[in-house]
Amino acid sequence: MNKLNETIERITPPDESMQSEAARYLDTLTKPPGSLGRLEELAIQLAGITRNLRPDLSKRAVVVMAGDHGVCEEGISAYPQEVTSQMVANFLNGGAAINVLARRAGAEVVCVDMGIKADLRHEDLHVRKIREGTSNFTRGAAMTREEAVRAIESGIDIARKLAGEGCRLFATGEMGIGNTTSSAAILAVFAGIETGLAVGRGTGIDDDGMQRKHDAIRRAISVNAPDAGDPLDVLSKLGGFEIAGMAGVILGAAALQCPVVIDGFISGVAALTAVSLAPDAWGYLIPSHLSQERGHRLVLERLGLRPLLDLNMRLGEGTGAVLAFPLLDAAVSIMREMATFESAGVSRG
Q1: Could you list the active site residues?
Q2: Which of 115, 200, 230, 246 could form a disulfide with 270 if both were Cys (CB 3.0 to 4.6 A apart)?
Q3: Backbone angles phi, psi at 285, to 5 degrees
Q4: pLDDT tens column, 67-94
Q5: What are the structural domains of the chain?
Q6: Rounded to an integer, what distance in angstroms lies between the CA atom of residue 346 and that of residue 315?
């Protein structure tokens, strides 16, 4: 708990004076003021986050947290639980969508076993296993409060390790059969909404599966009575080890003054959890895309964030997040390479 509290205490809002300086500099470049829209907003945000007008974000990583969920016993997924470990093996072998897209974006894929229900071994796998999957939250808490803290702190450790190796840009990704069920439950509690508004089809379940998913979430909230005012209570009772791990990565990166690009629904719920624990972490979040998963729009609205992309994606893994990396590169390149009116000899309007 000391590591979590210390990390939260280190998080301060992005530097407003640096943001103002970036905005003034953008207005000296050879373009009408504000004409590059969201790219200019990104340049300003990145300057405030990094305390640098022209940050070097060339070393970047997408952290893919993996964990299994006990609620899969309720038949809430179109895929069997062993797909979690099988897909992590695919990530480690470089054959998944996240690997393909990360290579294009110049990002390292960092896989973390937070609670896979298998003994997976690979030289590139970071094993931070809390235990082999959460408990079935329809019958009691998914994890203990102590386990939730350990999982968050494991994410903090991963962020610190990568930053120590020079990483300055993070993205959050995940793998865990059943994790849209857990995420929908967390969203429903944090947002104070009917569970039906938060539940989507996840991996593509049919109508009967949707009914089981709805029922499982309602029972979980009824049985556990999570306190919406206590983020650790909500996370421990309804969450997943990989969701907690992503929240830790966000908190760790924010404490280190590094931007974090969040992916889709599950990643967004992890961000909502992180911001509930440390409100100042909000300024370090960059929303990549709008997922097709039903609850994601509500997560972004709750966070007050506008996604950069809308590509009808719902895969997860961090795929939407790494697709946004080139936009961040473009924002930094504008600050680095574009001529000013004075240097180009162009008359100002």
Answers
A1: 317
A2: 246
A3: -90, 135
A4: 999 999 999 988 999 999 999 999 999 9
A5: 2-55+333-344 (1.10.1610.10), 60-327 (3.40.50.10210)
A6: 46
